[in-house]
Amino acid sequence: MTRHDDQWLERALRAAEPHLADDGFTQRVLAALPPAPAPRATRLDWVVPAAVALGSAVVASQFPLAPFLDLAEVALRQVQLSWLGAAVMIACMAGALLAEPLRRVL
To answer: pTM of the predicted model, to two decimals?
Structure first.
């Protein structure tokens, strides 16, 4: 479109009447429509969390865990965070990952 066409279209849209009288036709049609279906939980909602859990398990099985636990223990001592605090933090992260699928189920 040329600039002239754009200006014509803008003027036509601004000058258009905002409401067309339809003698209640729109309201009758909308009232006759069935209600929108509620979103359902599907098996696909669990694909990402399951893939993350599976991938994490595979990665964890391929690496020695002891050096990481020692590193985590040193890091927890430095920030004065207990193992319980670390467990709560991991639980929060897991909850954030599962929040959307659980919302759809519940």
So the answer is: 0.34
Q: Is residue 60 part of a domain?
A: yes
pLDDT single digits (tens) 65-101: 778 778 877 777 776 667 777 788 888 888 888 887 7
- The pair of structure tokens assigned to 47 is 């694909």
Cα–Cα distance for residue pair 47/25, rounded to 1 Å: 44
Q: Is residue 86 part of a domain?
A: yes
Task: Kindly state whether residue 28 falls inside one of the protein's structural domains.
Answer: no
Q: Give yes or no for a contact between 86 and 76, defined as CB atoms under 8 angstroms apart.
A: yes
Torsion sign, CA atoms 93, 96, 101, 106: positive
Classify residue 50: in a domain, yes or no: yes
- Coil, strand or helix at 24: coil
Amino acid identity for residue 23 in this structure: D
Domain membership of residue 98 as a residue range: 44-105
The number of distinct structural domains making up the chain is: 1
- How far the first Cα of the chain sits from its last, in Å, is 51
